[in-house]
User: Which sequence fits this backbone?
C-alpha cells in the first residue's frame, strides 16, 4: 500500500489515509505531508455542522443524521424507522431555525397539527358532541403552547453544542406534536452529552477543521490511540470521511481515500448506506475509496462489507492466500473470482522466478475483468521510507540527527552505507548502526571487510 499510494501521489493524486498503526509515517514525512495523530490532549476535531446555506443538501443532512444516530445509539444497535425520521427532522429544523428562524406554524402545519392532536385526544377518552368546544379549546391551547416553546428555540451559531441545546428541546416538541411516546428524551440527552461542552469529547465536533488540510496533497490520520474505544472510534472515522468529502468537492484533481483497519469501525447496518453513498459520490468527483484488511474473516463474515464495499470496488488486490486455501471457496464466491483467478492467486510467491533478481513480493490485482500476478520490487530507499520496524526507524533517525539533513538525504546516506556494508537485509544493518551509535560512513571498498 505504501508503494501504491506513493505512485498515486507521484501521478498528481491527493491522498487521504486513515491508519491504525503508523504504517505510513515514514512515507508521509518523506513527501512532506500532514501526519495527524489522535491524542487525548489534541484530538482530531472538526465542526461538521458549520456549513453555508448553499452546502445544505440531502447528502449533508444524511451525513449529520448518521453522525447523531451513531452517537445516540452506537454502531451495533438496530435503528428504527421512527428514530431515522425524528433525527432527520431535528437536523432539518435546526438549520431552518438558523437560516430563517421560526415565527409560527403556517396554515398547513397548523391544520395538520390540529388533526393529529384532536385524533390523539379522542383516543384517550370519550368525547361526546357536547364536549366538542372543550376539545377544540384544549387542542388550541396545546398548539399555542407548542408554538411558543418552539419560537423560543434560537440557533445563534452552528456547532454540535448549539445542535445539542436545540435538539434536546426540539425532540420533545416533535414527540408532542405527533403524539409519539416511544422516545426516551432523557436517554437521548445523556447519550449525546459527552460531545457537548464540558463533556469528555467536547472538542471533537465543535472546533473547525484546519482549513490548510484542503491544500495538503498527502494526509494521514493516525487513530491507533482510540481503536479500542467502541464509541469514539467510529465517530472519528466518520468525521474524517466527511473531511475527505469536502476536499473531494473542492479540488479538481484526482483524489483517493484509503481506510486501513479503521473501516471495520463503521461497517455496521447504520453506516452501510453511507458507505455506498461514499463510493458512488467519489466516482462523480474523480475520486476513489479503498479499504485494507489483514484479516480474511473481515471479508467473509460481514454482509455489510459484501453489499457496501466489495460490490462497489472495481479493483481487488490480494497478497499470499496459501494459508486460506482450504477455505477459499467462500472468499472466491464473495469476491466473484473465477477458477482462472484462483489458479493465479495460488502461484503468489510460489514460482521459481527469483534467481538473478532483487528481492520482490507478489500481489494479485484484478481490475474489472482483467487480472494478473505482479511483482512489487522496491529499492532500498523506498524500503527505508516505508519501514515500521522500530530498530530501522531508530537507525534512520540517528542518521538524520547526526547529519542534520532532510529526511530524504538521511535515507540516501543510510542506504549508501547499507549497500556498502554487504549486509543483505536492513534489520541486521540497522542493529549494527544502533550498536555503533553513530553514522558509519562506509565506502564501497569496505564491503569485503564487512563481509
Assistant:
Amino acid at each position: 500500500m505504501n508503494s501504491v499510494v506513493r505512485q498515486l501521489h507521484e501521478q498528481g493524486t491527493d491522498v487521504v489515509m486513515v491508519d491504525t498503526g503508523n504504517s505510513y509515517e515514514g512515507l508521509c514525512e518523506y513527501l512532506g505531508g500532514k501526519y495527524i495523530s489522535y491524542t487525548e490532549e489534541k484530538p482530531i476535531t472538526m465542526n461538521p455542522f458549520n456549513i453555508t446555506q448553499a452546502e445544505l443538501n440531502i447528502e449533508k443532512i444524511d451525513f449529520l443524521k448518521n453522525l447523531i444516530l451513531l452517537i445516540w445509539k452506537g454502531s451495533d444497535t438496530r435503528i428504527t424507522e421512527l428514530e431515522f425520521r425524528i433525527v432527520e427532522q431535528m437536523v432539518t429544523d435546526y438549520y431552518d431555525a438558523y437560516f430563517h428562524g421560526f415565527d409560527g406554524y403556517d396554515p398547513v402545519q397548523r391544520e395538520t397539527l390540529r388533526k393529529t392532536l384532536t385524533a390523539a385526544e379522542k383516543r384517550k377518552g370519550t368525547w361526546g358532541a357536547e364536549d366538542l368546544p372543550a376539545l377544540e379549546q384544549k387542542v388550541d391551547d396545546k398548539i399555542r403552547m407548542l408554538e411558543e416553546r418552539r419560537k423560543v428555540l434560537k440557533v445563534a451559531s452552528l456547532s454540535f453544542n448549539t445542535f445539542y441545546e436545540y435538539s434536546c428541546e426540539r425532540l420533545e416538541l416533535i414527540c408532542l406534536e405527533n403524539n409519539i411516546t416511544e422516545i426516551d428524551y432523557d436517554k437521548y440527552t445523556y447519550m449525546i452529552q459527552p460531545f457537548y461542552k464540558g463533556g469528555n469529547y467536547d472538542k471533537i465536533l465543535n472546533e473547525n477543521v484546519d482549513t490548510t488540510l484542503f491544500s495538503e496533497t498527502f494526509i494521514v490520520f493516525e487513530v491507533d490511540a482510540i481503536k479500542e474505544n467502541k464509541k469514539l472510534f467510529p465517530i472519528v472515522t466518520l468525521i474524517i470521511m466527511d473531511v475527505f468529502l469536502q476536499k473531494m468537492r473542492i479540488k479538481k484533481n484526482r483524489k483517493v481515500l484509503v481506510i486501513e483497519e479503521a473501516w471495520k469501525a463503521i461497517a455496521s447496518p447504520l453506516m452501510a448506506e453511507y458507505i455506498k453513498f461514499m463510493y458512488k459520490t467519489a466516482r462523480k468527483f474523480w475520486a476513489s475509496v479503498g479499504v485494507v484488511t489483514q484479516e480474511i474473516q473481515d471479508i467473509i463474515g460481514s454482509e455489510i462489507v459484501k453489499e457496501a464495499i466489495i460490490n462497489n470496488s472495481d479493483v481487488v488486490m490480494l497478497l499470499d492466500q496459501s494459508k486460506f486455501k482450504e477455505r477459499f471457496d467462500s472468499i472466491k464466491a464473495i469476491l466473484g473470482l473465477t477458477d482462472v483467478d484462483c489458479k493465479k492467486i495460488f502461484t503468489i510467491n510460489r514460482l521459481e522466478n527469483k534467481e538473478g533478481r532483487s528481492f520482490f513480493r507478489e500481489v494479485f490485482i484484478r481490475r474489472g475483468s482483467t487480472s494478473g500476478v505482479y511483482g512489487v520490487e522496491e529499492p532500498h530507499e523506498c524500503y527505508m521510507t516505508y519501514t515500521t520496524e522500530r530498530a530501522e526507524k531508530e537507525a534512520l533517525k540517528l542518521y538524520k540527527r547526526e547529519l542534520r539533513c532532510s529526511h530524504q538525504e538521511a535515507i540516501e546516506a543510510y542506504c549508501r552505507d547499507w549497500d556498502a556494508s554487504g549486509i543483505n537485509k536492513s534489520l541486521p544493518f540497522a542493529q549494527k548502526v544502533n550498536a555503533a551509535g553513530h553514522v558509519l560512513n562506509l565506502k564501497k571498498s569496505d564491503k569485503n571487510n564487512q563481509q
Notes: The radius of gyration is 29 Å. The chain has a mean pLDDT of 90. The first strand starts at residue 14 and ends at 19. The beta strands are 14-19, 34-37, 218-222, 255-259, 287-291, 315-318, 361-367, 370-376.
